[in-house]
Amino acid sequence: MDPRFTTTTTTDDRETGRKTGRRVPGEGEPPPLPVSPPGIRKPLPARLFAVHGTNAETRWEALRGEGDLTPDRLFFVRNHTSTPLIDAGSWRLTLWGSGLRGGPVSFTYRDLLAMPAEEVTAFVECAGNGRSLYGEQQGEEVSGTPWRLGAVGVARWRGVPFAALLGRAGMTARAVALMPRGLDPDYVEGGENLGRVRRPLPVTKALGDVLVAYEMNGRPLPPDHGFPARLAVPGWAGIAWTKWLGDVEVSAEPLESPWSSRLYRMHGPGHPPGGGPPLTRMGVKSAFELPWPARLRAGHGHLLHGRSWSGNGRVVRVDVSDDDGVSWRPAHLHGDSSPRGWVRWTFRWTPLGAGAAGLLARAVDETGAGQPERATSNRLGYAFDAVVRHPVVVT
Ligand SMILES: Nc1nc2c(c(=O)[nH]1)N[C@H]1C(S)=C(S)[C@@H](COP(=O)(O)O)O[C@H]1N2
Ligand SMILES: [Mo]
């Protein structure tokens, strides 16, 4: 038995989601007990978030009435372990490795703030967003955090172009791989210690539109989102967006980690042995700002709201169906989709009879990519990009 619990009884307080310890008279001070979920610092009211282990998923109905940017208080959190509290004064970002002209080069928080900054409005989305739909819609068993569609958020990120930091650190033409690494605790999976979260980033992407971001929506990054600095990798899966960035290996040789060699690849029938290529760009998705299931009155006109986004660029068209995809009507797009963010849309719908119904939305982006009827099966449930049937109860 865990020795921390030998002198206390533990009750699960369902109101607060906290574990509370009661002292046994005559014993020593009770040790600090874990909160639920362990390691996320911001409040996670059940109205706004669904908690899955160490992660918190945004409820789509909570985005109703919000603008293009997802506020921090609604932004999903995907933590392999827990949010570290980092002192910006003593923090250093160190670049090192065989791809640099000289030895390691460190930057302070003040160094970053003093460098020329850029901003990008972009979504960050977990590669596993929509994973539970593999089961719900396709009857496939997959493993991983059972997100619905709330592992995505859009923010305005401000920071230093990664290219500028690599230049200052003396990256040479021999560099072929980068390995950004977080300062959060080691990740242990099935008894195996995989070390700190790290995943190779191709030099070509790093020299493109990647920022070492220190602001989110005009404020310093909140602790849960990577304070003091994280990568912003527009269009790419969240795993590339290293939070609590501590160091970057710059290598003249290719690099790999469990997050590139095994995780974040498509495995299973139809994929190469060992998995497909590392996942990078996210596909096209759409979601309604409605509870799951939604309850709507029959015979009333409802103005439905939703959002669509794509890792390839702007969303140019969204259609909605209330008859399981037999017929489609265009949604009204509000404003121009930002190329790296999402587009908001509305659709007027008057359900006729009471009973169970479904609403489908599908988007097309500027490259012509759309949303298929079925997503590509894979054992770890990544990259669910199919049209989602949002369940509705008409009353
Ligand atoms: N250091 C570190 N960086 C990380 C992670 C992590 O656990 N540790 N999770 C990654 C994953 S899988 C995702 S989807 C995004 C989530 O970003 P958010 O928590 O700010 O929404 O952060 C990425 N960066
Ligand atoms: Mo993720």
Description:
- By secondary structure, this protein is mostly beta strands.
- Helices cover 7% and strands 33% of the residues.
- A five-stranded mixed sheet has the order 6-5-16-9-12. Strands 7, 8, 13, 14 and 15 form a five-stranded antiparallel sheet that branches.
- A hairpin with a 2-residue loop joins strand 13 and strand 14.
- Mean pLDDT is 91; it is low at 1-28 and 30-35.
- The structure holds the ligand Nc1nc2c(c(=O)[nH]1)N[C@H]1C(S)=C(S)[C@@H](COP(=O)(O)O)O[C@H]1N2 and molybdenum atom.
Helices, strands, pairings?
Elements: E1 8-13, E2 18-23, E3 49-52, E4 55-58, E5 92-96, E6 105-108, H1 109-114, E7 118-125, H2 132-138, E8 152-161, H3 162-169, E9 177-182, E10 188-189, E11 192-193, E12 201-202, H4 203-206, E13 211-216, E14 219-220, E15 230-232, E16 245-251, H5 258-261, E17 284-288, E18 294-296, E19 302-310, E20 315-321, E21 329-330, E22 332-334, E23 342-349, E24 355-365, E25 388-394
Parallel strand pairs: 5-16, 18-25
Antiparallel strand pairs: 1-2, 3-4, 5-6, 7-8, 8-13, 9-12, 9-16, 10-11, 13-14, 13-15, 17-19, 19-23, 20-21, 20-24, 22-23, 24-25
This protein binds the ligand Nc1nc2c(c(=O)[nH]1)N[C@H]1C(S)=C(S)[C@@H](COP(=O)(O)O)O[C@H]1N2 and molybdenum atom (MO).
